[in-house]
């Protein structure tokens, strides 16, 4: 990240909301249809204003109303919540019992800070192209698991503007999940557990029994990730601290103490040599009981260094708010753009359009006659924001098609 | 692949079951899909419900006491037996099967009416009913279970041979990684196992623990885990039904005889019905105070500061830190054991999930009993400490009402707390005068005299001219007077 990014001023934000923010697409994405339904009108929006002012329980009748209010308040960002049983703006006037979250996209949040123990290139809020690869790996695993195991298809991945990625799932069943079911799904997906003081964070099996099939199916891919990232770019076992951590995760015994002696004497050996040669050859030579124990330990280590690390709380509750796509990250000025999971490997967070650049692009384009008269619904088409809005619009088309299909099948459905 | 014995094989003993089909209730277990439609006498209406309520209350207190499942099961079975809710297996020809099952049926539906009325009551009712159902389901014999599985439409589909062959290794891995039995050869395991396919949303508990294999949203549930589907289904249906009942209830053509019964029932559940109506353990004379007795003591014997905290706790189902500290230590000295104290707070914080309670509150309660941390034996706060230390903030309820309440609020509070014990608005000017001069303990003592005017005359204070210096002293004196009064009353009767 370049250190001299000018801060995003309110004027810039206002121009962005007025001319570039794709309100129509966001509306259709939340609403699943052209005419406003409860999915939009009963939906909570929360605004963050400068000075840590936080306005919750806003709701709007249509895209224009939303745009008007956003331009009015000019928030630094806004978040999207669940569909309630009543309009959120009426919250104070309805009985508390009559106001509860009903529907909500199933959402996931993956944040780079959770990877601090397994990355060496950056820490905290920083992110570089090397460690973005962890996010890319997480996207691959999660995208495949959700589609294959849970059968959901309407997945939208959104870059969070700085150091993470969000996933919004809009399948009908996913929208209808109860908190209990969400918690169960998160439990299924959570492999890395335990706090700072816990060394071994993977406990998904009993003893040396095989891994659950859902995790086993990702192992081959994660093995590659482990080789390329953990051993390759991140060099996790290069320094003493790193290899000590590895030794702590191996079963105590002759092999482990032999490795400790070897590495104490030859600390310059690369991570790959330590893992593939020193550990690998000893592992291959082990007899049955030790071999099985070591196999389980090796698999668990690969998982601990590569498996997606989810922020579980975000996904568990329907009423959790999550930043809307296309908001601007106030520190970086980057727009939270949708990402195509199939090209996640070539996605570079540093290349994501920044709000100032987009406005500059707009100024370069000669103004058309229509463009000057008040509304600017499609100015984004003339900037580098276009491919990203196109991703969302394509996603919206499939959602609308789902609704059409359902209506054909059951004419009287209401939700 | 070798021919798999079809699961329906175990369902084929239909012949032996048919002979019971003359029963009105063919199965021991009931999903309560249909309400009882025959005439029910008012007495039966009430007794069926009360008996069931006692069982459910015992289940609730089992949760609050953290009883392990086996113990809970045993306690619940015993309770069922004591309160005429034992259900015999369909093979017990000599028993009045229809009669037992009818009582069970009627009791359940009456309680639905009583407990559908608020979100919280519904949640607690579902939890208790689900537990009762699970206890009975686990006791159920194979024959009864099979009949039951067929009688309620569970809408599960048996996995086909092709699917079993296709996912053989994954199913085996799922079974091996989840089962607790060691050394079972996993391949032969799956070959015999029957799998049922349901949407994963119907077995969240199995999904959370990765006990099933998932493909395109369908969970392959092995036969030995089928109870998850059944219990989940029971819960989902009951939750839906309760919400519908709640919506319909106000429009019922109400008979004025029923609402008072329902009110009484739901209040009993809230206050912890077990020891009030259940077997009377004689704990009144000993120094041990149980959680269920607190409400009663609060009403009769508390000084205003504790009465205020107690009422706030009942109203908000929560107290902030200093409130818990002040009230918790007071209860400890009053005679609540650590177990009863945990039970009391667990029940009082009824909006708080078990997880959160165990994490955030249990430790502090144990700490105040000297069981955690530096294990200090903390004394209950005296009037002086309450008056001067830890001044209440804007959203706090602790402190001394005589000092920390606005004069108008104090007057209203005193009247609502003590008018049933003889305090009238004519007494207020005198009390407010002492409050205004800063003699809070004098005001408190005066209230004690007024509310115990049968035994104490003005100026006697809490006995021998003493004035109130400690809330526990207030409550102890008040309870002593009550015992004396009872003895005296008995003497008079004897004489």
UniProtKB/TrEMBL annotation, chain A:
Its EC number is 2.7.7.-. The keyword rRNA-binding does not apply. GO terms for cellular component: alpha DNA polymerase:primase complex. It is an enzyme of class 2 (transferase). Gene3D superfamilies: DNA primase, PRIM domain. GO terms for biological process: DNA replication, synthesis of primer. SUPFAM superfamilies: Prim-pol domain. The keyword Zinc applies. Keywords: DNA replication, DNA-directed RNA polymerase, Metal-binding, Nucleotidyltransferase, Primosome, Transcription, Transferase, Zinc. One of its GO terms (molecular function) is metal ion binding. It holds the Pfam family DNA_primase_S. InterPro entries: DNA_primase_S, DNA_primase_ssu_euk/arc. Belongs to the eukaryotic-type primase small subunit family. This is DNA primase. It comes from Steccherinum ochraceum.
UniProtKB/TrEMBL annotation, chain B:
[4Fe-4S] cluster binds at residues 305, 383, 400, 444. GO terms for cellular component: alpha DNA polymerase:primase complex. Residues 296-474 form the DNA primase large subunit C-terminal domain. Binds 1 [4Fe-4S] cluster. It comes from the Eukaryota. One of its GO terms (biological process) is DNA replication, synthesis of primer. Its cofactor is [4Fe-4S] cluster. Keywords: 4Fe-4S, DNA replication, DNA-binding, Iron, Iron-sulfur, Metal-binding, Primosome. Pfam families: DNA_primase_lrg, DNA_primase_lrg_N. The keyword Iron-sulfur applies. One of its GO terms (molecular function) is 4 iron, 4 sulfur cluster binding. Belongs to the eukaryotic-type primase large subunit family. DNA primase is the polymerase that synthesizes small RNA primers for the Okazaki fragments made during discontinuous DNA replication. This is DNA primase large subunit. It comes from Steccherinum ochraceum.
